[in-house]
């Protein structure tokens, strides 16, 4: 895990998310690309190059954000791009090869009742890169315990577990597996893939209507430093396929949420 992309919004929490990313990168000797997308609508007949002005202002904002953090000798590069966040991330990944996206869970939304804002939700929904969503105001702590929740032990992607495997190896973290038996589960779902077995420190099997509910039931007793889930079309983020946000009443995590999706 060498390249970490950090999309930066305009919220007060953006600086804290960036500081978390820097602290995390310092631990694993990774490079950070601080990124912000911008858009502009130039009217016909406009002489001034609006795009160039906005690009300069965007870079100035990014430099200001970086300078407000404790840098810890981490290699940090700035990227500004015209267009949507998700499309820009795809282009950046193609050019640089991004291993992990660290983003504020709430993103740019001003709604107090959101856990995943539109930017974080869109990246989870549409990007094939692992996303680490950081709760508001969360300060970095070394990762010693991870709760990984899933409803099927079947793993089809060869790359989906790589970010988690890397984190476990770097931090010597314990992984407590939570297998949630939802309605209509199959016996195949209860068989763990060999790579999951290799990660597990403990395993808990529970029966709930959804993976969400299984996590809500067990996260307080497990008290992990990180929650990890797999992004599947009808899995943990089922509601995210209907929209790009998740309400706090639907789900909330007070620890970083790692969402895995294989390329």
Overview of the molecule:
The chain is an alpha/beta fold and 263 residues long. The protein starts with a strand and ends with a strand. It is built from seven helices and twelve strands. Helix content is 31%, strand content 25%. The strands form two sheets. A ten-stranded mixed beta sheet has the order 3-2-1-4-6-12-10-7-8-9, sandwiched between helices. A two-stranded antiparallel ribbon has the order 5-11. The chain has helices at residues 14-28, 50-67, 85-96, 118-126, 162-171, 194-199, 211-222; strands spanning 3-7, 31-38, 76-82, 100-104, 114-116, 131-134, 145-150, 174-181, 200-207, 226-230, 246-247, 257-260. The chain folds into two domains: 3-134, HUPs (Rossmann fold); 145-238, Rossmann fold (3-Layer(aba) Sandwich), CATH 3.40.50.
| SSE run | EHEHEHEEHEEHEHEHEEE
Radius of gyration: 19 Å
Principal-axis shape? globular
CATH superfamily of the largest domain: HUPs
Count of structural domains: 2
- CATH class membership of the largest domain: Alpha Beta
* Ends distance: 15 Å
CATH topology of the largest domain: Rossmann fold
Q: Can you count the beta strands?
A: 12
Tell me the strand order in the biggest sheet.
3-2-1-4-6-12-10-7-8-9
- Strand-pairing-aware structural class: alpha/beta
Low-confidence regions: 44-49, 108-114
Mean pLDDT: 82
* Level-2 CATH architecture of the largest domain: 3-Layer(aba) Sandwich
């Amino acid at each position: 895990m060498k390249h970490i992309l950090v999309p930066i919004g305009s919220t007060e929490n953006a600086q804290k998310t960036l500081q978390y990313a820097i602290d995390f990168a310092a631990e694993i000797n990774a490079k950070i690309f601080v990124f912000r997308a911008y858009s502009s609508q130039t009217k016909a007949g406009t002489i001034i190059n609006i795009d160039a002005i906005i690009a300069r202002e965007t870079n100035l904002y990014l430099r200001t954000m970086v300078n407000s953090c404790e840098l810890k000798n981490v290699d940090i590069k700035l990227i500004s791009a015209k267009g949507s966040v998700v499309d820009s991330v795809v282009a950046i990944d193609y050019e640089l090869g991004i291993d992990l996206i660290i983003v504020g869970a709430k993103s740019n939304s001003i709604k107090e009742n959101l856990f995943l804002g539109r930017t974080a939700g869109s990246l989870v929904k549409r990007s094939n890169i692992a996303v680490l969503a950081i709760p508001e105001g969360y300060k970095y702590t070394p990762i010693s315990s991870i709760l990984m929740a899933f409803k099927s032990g079947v793993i089809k992607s060869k790359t989906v577990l790589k970010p988690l495997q890397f984190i476990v190896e770097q931090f010597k973290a314990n992984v407590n597996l939570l297998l949630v038996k939802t309605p209509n589960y199959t016996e195949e779902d209860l068989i763990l893939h060999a790579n999951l077995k290799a990660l597990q420190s403990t395993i808990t099997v529970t029966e709930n209507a959804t993976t969400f509910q299984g996590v809500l039931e067990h996260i307080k007793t497990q008290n992990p430093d990180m929650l990890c889930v797999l992004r599947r079309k009808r899995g943990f983020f089922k509601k995210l396929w209907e929209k790009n946000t998740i309400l706090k009443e639907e789900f909330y995590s007070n620890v970083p949420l790692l969402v895995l999706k294989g390329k």
